Amino acid sequence: MSLPYLDFYRGRRVMITGGLGFIGSNLARQLVALGADVLLVDSLIPDYGGHHFNIEGVADRVHVNIADVRQQSTMNYLVRGREVIFNLAGQVSHIDSMRDPFTDLEINCRSQLTILEACRRNNPAAKVVYAGTRQVYGKPDYLPVDERHLVRPTDVNGINKVAGEYYHLVYNNVFGVRGCSLRLTNIYGPRQLIRHNRQGFIGWFIRLVVEDREIEVFGDGSQVRDFVFVDDAADAFLRAGADDACNGEVFNVGGDEPISHRDLVTMLTGIAGTGRVTYREWPPEKKAIDIGSFYADSKRFSSLTGWKPRVSLREGFTRTIAYYREHLARYIADPSSAS
Amino acid sequence: MSLPYLDFYRGRRVMITGGLGFIGSNLARQLVALGADVLLVDSLIPDYGGHHFNIEGVADRVHVNIADVRQQSTMNYLVRGREVIFNLAGQVSHIDSMRDPFTDLEINCRSQLTILEACRRNNPAAKVVYAGTRQVYGKPDYLPVDERHLVRPTDVNGINKVAGEYYHLVYNNVFGVRGCSLRLTNIYGPRQLIRHNRQGFIGWFIRLVVEDREIEVFGDGSQVRDFVFVDDAADAFLRAGADDACNGEVFNVGGDEPISHRDLVTMLTGIAGTGRVTYREWPPEKKAIDIGSFYADSKRFSSLTGWKPRVSLREGFTRTIAYYREHLARYIADPSSAS
Question: Interface of chain B against chain A, CB under 8 Å?
Answer without folding.
Answer: 98, 101-102, 105, 109-110, 113, 117, 148, 150-156, 158-160, 162-163, 166-167, 169-170, 173-174, 288-289
